Each structure stands twice: as structure tokens, then as C-alpha cells.
């Protein structure tokens, strides 16, 4: 019996591999299913091009927590000091260097 369970369905291979790398960096084992179907773009239905991320069943709660943190980090934020809009992956304002408010 396979002990892996679906965690997430990524829209494309790039998103899937970014999340996979973030989870593996935290010590989780991740499998991808469907990454080879990207070549069928335009010819296959969109839902068949999703890449499924699977994690070990016992690691699912931790993986869900890490996924939520990863997704939250992608949310853009506005600098309180200079008003500049920053992409979510910036830990400090790219314009003035200020740290975002928590």
C-alpha cells in the first residue's frame, strides 16, 4: 500500500517544483504526478495538465502547514515607510529597505 497522499494540485510544472523544493528543504519527501503532461498544453483539457504533489500520509499535517506558509509568503505587501508595492517573497522593501509590519 502506497503511503503517499495528495497535498496540492499545482497549475503548472514550475509552481509544482517550487513548492516541492520548499517542502523538501524542510525535510519532507514529495512526489510529483503529471509533470510530463505539460507538453500537451493546448491539446489536453486544462485539468489534465495540473501537477499533483504527494507527501507521505504521516507528514500531511506538517506539509499543509508549510504549504500555507509558502502561499502566504507570495502575497504582495505595501511598505509602510515609502508606500512601495513589494512582491510577497521580499523580506524587506526593495526600495527603502524597511521591514514589513507583522
UniProtKB/TrEMBL annotation:
Pfam families xrefs: DUF2007
**Keywords assigned by UniProt, alphabetized:** Metal-binding, Zinc, Zinc-finger
Q: Which InterPro entries match?
A: DUF2007, Znf_RanBP2, Znf_RanBP2_sf
**Gene3D superfamilies xrefs:** UreE, C-terminal domain
Specify the protein name: RanBP2-type domain-containing protein
Presence of the UniProt keyword Ribosomal protein in the record? no
Residue span(s) of domain RanBP2-type: 77-96
Amino acid at each position: 500500500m502506497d503511503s503517499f497522499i495528495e497535498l496540492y494540485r499545482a497549475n503548472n510544472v514550475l509552481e509544482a517544483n517550487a513548492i516541492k523544493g520548499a517542502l523538501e528543504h524542510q525535510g519532507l519527501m514529495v512526489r510529483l504526478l503529471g509533470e510530463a503532461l505539460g507538453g500537451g498544453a493546448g491539446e489536453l483539457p486544462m485539468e489534465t495538465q495540473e501537477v499533483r504533489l504527494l507527501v507521505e500520509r504521516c507528514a500531511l499535517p506538517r506539509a499543509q502547514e508549510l504549504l500555507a506558509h509558502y502561499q502566504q509568503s507570495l502575497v504582495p505587501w505595501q511598505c509602510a515607510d515609502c508606500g512601495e508595492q513589494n512582491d510577497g517573497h521580499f523580506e524587506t522593501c526593495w526600495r527603502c529597505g524597511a521591514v514589513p509590519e507583522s
